[in-house]
Specification:
Order of helices and strands: HEEEHHEEH
Distance between the termini: 38 Å
Number of strands: 5
Strand content: 5-15%
Helix content: 40-55%
Oligomer: single chain
Shape: globular
Length: about 130
């Protein structure tokens, strides 16, 4: 798969990890290599952005808002620092999910169910086996 195909697929399913907004293609002019001239771009944030899965963004935003997570304590609390914290948590969640084999370049490798992010759900192997049983 070419880089442009990868970006096209990400554009259709991913969101900006800073604001959760839709991504577009942006042509950049500092490369003679065709694939390197296009990037994903968030028009709301005015930044080049590779994006994140919408489920990851929702979880990260809920985590930052609920627990007051602040990776950047040296910055004043503002909407900008909130967005930076959400983006950092997105990176952490994606890293963990990728390491566990749950996330690939094509998105999640398993079905993902979005739950009420204010509630915790604990699954055991038995619960999962019963759920799959006819």
């Amino acid at each position: 798969m070419s880089r442009l195909e990868l970006l096209g697929r990400r554009k259709s399913r991913c969101v900006c990890k800073y604001c959760g907004g839709a991504l577009t293609f942006k042509r950049i002019a500092f490369s003679d290599y065709g694939d390197a001239r296009s990037e994903l771009y968030c028009p709301a944030c005015a930044r080049i952005e590779f994006g994140t899965e919408p489920e990851i963004y929702a979880s990260a935003a809920a985590f930052v808002d609920r627990f007051g997570f602040n990776y950047f304590p040296e910055l004043d609390e503002s909407e900008q620092s909130r967005r930076m914290n959400i983006a950092k948590v997105c990176e952490i969640i994606a890293w963990g999910d990728r390491g566990a084999g749950l996330l690939s370049d094509e998105g999640y490798t398993v079905p993902v169910r979005q739950t009420d992010l204010g509630e915790a759900t604990v699954f055991s192997a038995r619960d999962l086996a019963e759920e799959d049983a006819p």
